[in-house]
Structures are given as structure tokens and as C-alpha cells.
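<instruction>
Derive C-alpha cells from the sequence

<record> Sequence and C-alpha cells follow
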Amino acid sequence: MKSWTYEKAGVPHLKGDARYNSQISKLIASTRVPGVMGSATGFASLFDFRKAGIRNPLLVSSTDGVGTKLEIAHFQKRHDTIGLDLVAMCVNDLITSGAKPLFFLDYFATGKFHPKGTQQVLKGITAGCRQAGCALVGGETAIMPGFYSTGAGNGVPQYDLAGFSVGVVDRSKVIDGSKIRKGDVLLGLASTGFHSNGYSLLRKIFSPAQLRGKIGKELLKPTRIYVKPVLQLLQRVPVAGLVNITGGGFPDNLPRVVPKGLSASISLNSWPRPRIFSLVQDSGNITTFEMARTFNMGIGMVAILKGRYVPKAQGLLKRHQIRSWVIGEIKQGKRRSKSAVELIN
């Protein structure tokens, strides 16, 4: 009878691998911020909340993944940027409440351990944490043989990712959309492309050959992390609402912050739409409405504020190399009705 071990079943004993632990500990240490306590490889993470320096603090949390954009990374045989997407999808949600990200945790699952590929993914996660100014304080690497495809052995095996972020905001500075008023304007902040949404549709439109080529390279561009410019914006300009334009585009995300009885009117011609979006629309014969409720259309985040603050806001964003445009305004809707979005082509 064959003598089995866990490793023979396909699961290496990573927790006892001193070399592997040393390599990942260096990456994790590069994200350290004031407040982090304990070992990078302990059972749980400690954080001294007093280091945040907030008088009346509220904890804010978010979680997300990268979705089928992971397949584009496999087509492109590049895995050092997908971790940036993971961090961005979490912290960009976090800051819409006015919160500063404090720390981040990740979950990495695969069918076969591939040290180089795993470290490339982690490299992107730690780079994203540094951009967001938060610490990677823990995570989980799950090896599940037979559950994920391991491919033909000539590349990184299939894997999945999830992320979890925690931040803090002063109770008096929470942004929840309650201060949005008729006449406020929508300031759209440029995206870096499709970010991490709509990739199931993109993979239907383009062939594997296209996804391995220039189009795939364009689609793999990492999600922009808006944390530092947006937090600076909040310090200098009264912002009534922030919207992360993720899955659902404008029609599904703006109503999440616009109060009942008001509506958001958006002119789709008020900013230069990146060519890749037009290519997708033409290639897939997609209606403009379907485009706007699936993709961000070149606008990754929307700040809602008084028109008189727009020049100051745009100047600050420009210093962070972020282009921005007034893309619409808040209008009166039907009293007691849910907020709505009007798209003007």
C-alpha cells in the first residue's frame, strides 16, 4: 500500500519553509506603517488603533476580488500587476466614506504551489499597499489540488484572489452623500482603463489570440489607486459625495450615494473617452447604455461638490497626474422616489 503524505497529495508545508517565509516577510515589511505590531508570519495581526491619530474614530471595512481579469494575466503571462488591482478594488471603495486605509489582508488560492508566480502576485499586492499607504498585515495561501486547473505545467497555475481592507475616519468627517444638493456638479476622475470590471464580457468579445497580444496588454493595465489624491482633496475641498465606478457603471453606482428625490445627469460626451472603449463597443456591437452600466467609460471615480470648488479640485488632482472633467450635475427628481441616473449621449 502506498504511503501518503500531505506533500504527496499536492500541498507543500509552506509554514515551515524558512526560505519562503523570509522572502515574503521582506515584501510584507515594505508596507509597514505606524500602528502595526507583532510578527508578519503570526497567527493573527495586531494594530495599535491609537496610532491613527483620530479623535472620534469609526472603523471602515471593505472586501473585493479581481474577477476574470485574472485570465488576462494568464494570457499575458504577467502576474506582478494583478495584486495592484486587488488592493485598488478594496481601498477605492474604502475612501468613498472619507476613510484612510490602515491595513490590508489577502487570500490566495491555487491548485498547485508555484513559488515564483505566488511571489509575483504578492509583489503587486505590496506595491498596491505602498501606493495606498496601508500595511499588508496578513493573508492566507490555500493550496487545493484538483480544485483549480494546474495547466500544462508551462506557466503559473490557475489561482484566485480576494482582498480585505480596514480603514478609519473621524465620525464628524464621514462622507455618506447626505449633504448632496441640487446644483452640485459631478467631477469625473480619469481611470487607467477598465480597472477590474466587465472582464467576462471583454473575454467574450476578444479572441484568445487578441488577449495574448496588444489588446490583452491594454486590458491588463492596473486599476488606479485613488487613495492619496482623494484624501488630499478631502482636506482642502468640501466634497459631498464620492462614487467608485465599478461593476454596474454609472447607472448602478451613483444611486448608492445620491439621496432620494434627486437625480444625477451625466453627459457622456463631456470627457474624451479612451479609444479602447470605442473599440470594445464596436467589436461587440454594444449599446451605449450597456457600455455605461458595465464599464467605467474612462471615469474611475466621481466626486460630487459645489461648482465653485471645481478649479481648486482639478488643480490638486492634476498635481497627482489625474485628469478630471465636470461630467454632469445633480438635478431635482421625483419626491420620495429613488435616485436616478440620466445618461445624455
Notes: The chain has a mean pLDDT of 92. Residues 97 and 308 are 22 Å apart (CA to CA). The chain has two domains: 14-173, 185-344.
